[in-house]
Amino acid sequence: MAGSKKQGQAWQAGGGNAVRTRANVAPWRWMALAALGAAVTLTLPPARAADAYPAKPITMVVPFAAGGPTDVVARTMAAAMSKTLGQSVVVENRLGAGGTVSAAYVAKAAPDGYTILIHHNGMATAPALYSKLSYKPLTDFSFVGQVADVPMTLLGRHDLPAKTLPELITYIRQNQGKVNLANAGLGAVSQLCGMLFQKAIGVELTAIPYQGTAPAMTALLGSQVDILCDQTTQTLPHIKADKVRLYGVTTSSRIKALPETSTLAEGGLKGFEVKVWHGIYAPRGTPPAVIDRLNGALRTALKDPAVAARLADLGAEIVPEDKQTPEGLRTWLKSEIEKWSPIIKAAGVKAD
Ligand code: MLT
Question: How far apart are CA 189 and CA 64, in angstroms?
Answer without folding.
Answer: 11
